[in-house]
Amino acid sequence: MGKIHQLDEKLSNMIAAGEVVENMASVVKELIENAIDANADNIAIDLSESGLRRIRIEDNGEGMDESDLQMAFKRHATSKIKTSHDLHHIASLGFRGEALPSIASVSHMTLESSTSDDIGHKITVNNGLIESQSDGRAKRGTTVIVNNLFYNTPARLKHLKSAEKELSFIIDVCNRMALSHPQIAFSLSNDQKSMLKTTGDGDVLKVLYQIYPMSVIKNMLYFEGSNAYFKISGYLSKPEITRSSSKHMLFFTNRRFIRNYRLNKAALQGMDTYLPLHKYPILYCHITVDPLLIDVNIHPQKLEIKFSEQRLLENLIETTILQKLQGTDLIPKIEKQKPQTQDSLQFDFNENNPAIAPKHHIEEASSQTHPQNHTKSRLPYMEYIGQAMGTYLLFQGKDTLFLMDQHAAAERIRYENYKAKMTKETAQTQTLISPFIVALSNAEMNDYNAYQPLLETLGVKSEKQKDKSLQINTVPTWFHPGYEEVYTEALIKHILDEQPTSKAQILDPLAKTLACKHAIKGNQYINRHEVDRLLRDLSQCQNPFTCPHGRPTIIQFSQQELETMFKRIQS
Length: 571
Prior knowledge:
The chain is of the alpha+beta class. It contains 17 helices and 25 strands. A hairpin with a 5-residue loop joins β3 (108-114) and β4 (120-126). α10 (261-271) packs parallel to α11. The longest helix has 18 residues, at 163-180. The termini are far apart.
């Protein structure tokens, strides 16, 4: 007798559940996707004990008749695709037909549905087998109740996180669904406590306000861009609003939440030197693309998709975000936080562009003329007052007090200057009257051989010595006088450590490294002439608001805030 046999349907469903049903959040995700695909515009999620005891999801979608209700619990049964052609034109969220039978195989499930307000049907499934069928509530839509999830798979229960952590996973799922479908009203409660409630009026910013506090919403920037293949739009937090992980960077494609490391990287490159080190923005980015240019069938939970022309999408994201930041006043405003209520958020939208943020909360850049050089500046009018603590320069403007970090400002100026110099195809060089020696180990010398041509394109020319050292004869003209040796050693060390494959890879990190070498330091007195030059040069930078490492160069206090702190006015 042969060894190979066909698994029965019950066991097959339990195996499929291992891929589809990881925890309570994955159950909620699958059932919400079914409700969305049924064209529901109101979805209510009610949990008991973070969903482990009960998950109840009710929608007002198209519903199912009696035959559909029975068919829904068979493997690979779906209403969303019929032919291979449909698989390449997927517009629905779910399509594999495994969710309901997989969930039912590891729980006690009741499903009640109706296609009209005349008659309803109800089915109960226990351990993957239909237990009973009866008439149900005559109300258009579907209600799914999942009780005692994983009751028959104790190993799965063992690997669940704490109730609080599992609830946070569910909240994340519901947040993403609400952001990807702002035209649907979502509500989420756990043990009768409300966790999320959206209006379903299509306003993404209102959904974001249900997720983040007003201090974040006030500092969100709307962006949009397009090319021949893709259209993107969304909201990005100003650099002063950051998080310690990238999980708040959310991408959606054709209303589907996706994970894509390369898109994250493109967005971060767009923020360039605006972000502090090891910090990430809050980002909502929706991508619209022809379904023919994507493949959504490469991941069991459909969290990853494959893009055709992905590089064009990455370029679009990077340039759109960078252009937005370059056109925005990014000086942080120090304001006293006030308690916010839902009623205090007033939305005022342009009818021709409903995605643009509230006028009073999202601030756009305004080009201003600086009094010192009478050319277009990205900084507002600033009149020098003095220096505090040997580090901070004080300026006043109209109804505003500005504080500038002189070291951060000097770093920004040098970074942009050095990067511009290094970007040139042919470096301007100077021959040293007194060459100097750079000592390398035998391993470093071996690596140096591969990078010598790259160093020469940057303007550093050398001769190898017998004692495994280098004699540096020529350096770029932009090396600061007296710092030729320091800059050269830093450049060589950086290249040998990073081992770039092209000149472009080394320019940005190298410019950041060198910018620190001779910038004005903290606790260093500078005179009025030096202040004027610093302000003039900073005002002409592409990004005068942060140092190369993302720290702010300037912060500001409003007159109203100062008068409030001094109790001259009531807050």
